[in-house]
Design a protein that fits this description.
By secondary structure, the chain is mainly α. It is built from 11 helices and no strands. α2 packs antiparallel against α8, α5 crosses α6 (85-102) and α9 (143-151) packs across α11 (176-189). It is elongated and about 55 Å long.
């Protein structure tokens, strides 16, 4: 029987909303700029490691101007443990410079301007807009969202941009921000990549994967 994706999405939202009422962004931040920096650092790195690094980083540098002024080599050492540290330091400095020069030291609140910042693609922009500004600009597609969306039959795509477009058609816009958090929570706790705990999964009765 062909899966009804619209109904499937509704069921997933209903069950995960109940299962994870406290789901939220795992990257520690107190403002939009800190979230931007943390999200850039999170590429190919765990949120836990990023939070350890930013705890010191945000005490040392208070805003975009501080990141502009710091030497590239010094910033590289500050973020070294997150991996790809040279490129991340370069992107953070470039983003900070543009924020200072073009946006009066404030992180822009729209997709078009965010995408002009160093190291910022749609995923990062969606994270910042959704979690710092409460703007549902799209659905964040990370590795967990990608994996679960395919397992649950919500998409057959592998490209994050195409997955996002599929999910935007199925998920009500008011749930775009939280939908990613719910899938990420579930992916970390139950539906992991190597050995999903299907027996104890709240979605096991609606998951196409179960019983196959």
């Amino acid at each position: 029987m062909k899966l009804n994706r619209e109904q499937q999405a509704k069921d997933v939202i209903r069950l995960l909303r109940k299962e994870y009422p406290d789901a939220h962004c795992a990257l520690n931040h107190t403002n939009a700029f800190e979230l931007l920096v943390a999200t850039i650092l999170s590429a190919q790195c765990t949120d836990e490691r990023v939070n350890i690094v930013t705890a010191d980083l945000f005490r040392k540098y208070k805003g975009p101007k501080d990141f502009v002024d710091v030497l590239q080599e010094d910033l590289e050492q500050d973020v070294r443990s997150t991996g790809f540290f040279r490129n991340k330091a370069k992107n953070i400095k470039a983003a900070s410079q543009r924020i200072v020069d073009e946006y009066g030291g404030k992180v822009p609140e729209n997709m078009e301007d965010l995408l002009t910042l160093g190291g910022v693609a749609r995923k990062t922009a969606n994270v910042v807009l959704g979690n710092a500004f409460g703007i549902a600009s799209g659905v964040v597609v990370d590795t967990h969202v990608k994996r679960l969306s395919n397992r649950l039959g919500l998409t057959k795509q592998s490209d994050p941009v195409k997955i996002e477009k599929d999910l935007e058609k199925l998920v009500p816009k008011k749930d775009w921000v939280m939908f990613s958090h719910w899938l990420i929570y579930h992916g970390r706790r139950v539906c992991n990549a190597r050995k999903p705990d299907c027996e104890n999964c709240v979605l096991n009765k609606i998951c196409p994967r179960v019983g196959v």
